[in-house]
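User: Could you check the structure of this?
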Amino acid sequence: MSITRLHLILPCFNPIKDWEIRVCQHLKSLQLILCDISIEPILINDGSVTGVEQKHIDYIKERIPAIQMIEYSENKGKGYAVREGFKLATAEFIIFTDIDFPYIEADFVKLFRKLQNEEVDILVGIRQSDYYQQTPWYRATISRLLKFFIGKFLNVKITDTQGGLKGFSQKGRQILLKTKVNRYLFDLEIIKIASNTIGIKMEAMPVELRKDVQFASLSWVILKREFLNFIKIYFSKNT
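Assistant: Sure, the predicted structure tokens are below.
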């Protein structure tokens, strides 16, 4: 009997100190819990200028031999990085999350089992009220505003699109590979395409943020860029 495979996509850009230790800890812990599954990580170094050195890569490879690495020198954005990982993902199931594994382990396992057992093509982790209590006020405000605009202007089945934990079948993988946005709002683009594609089964699942998550700052340059990406997604036909 063949072992079920899971490709885990981990985009990485300017990670915090000791990130390589945390990655190995999380991967080993998940593999112990999902002992009937072959977890095959794909880590994408999205043009990091700090935090990623050869010693960090060597540390991970020594402890997680199954890991695949993708590296390029210019930062291209989370959407681009995740797509590069998905191009290599041949496993029955694929999950992407952030390099700091921001959601609790129990929710990761629950999301995978739900993906595995319920024939869902795309499973979207949605954030609960505790997320907004743990995040800086400006991030919580931006998240709520984005959800409002998504619900107001886009014909989608899920309005909380930006949670950093999503699972896919191979059928769902084809939806992600249709995205064009290279930065943060590629998540929204996934939801829009899936919402308007006949035969795609997409569901939401509540997820809980870990208590020790560190949030990156959001500059006005990023906000302006993502606003323009929202406009592009709004007018796109996604054919």
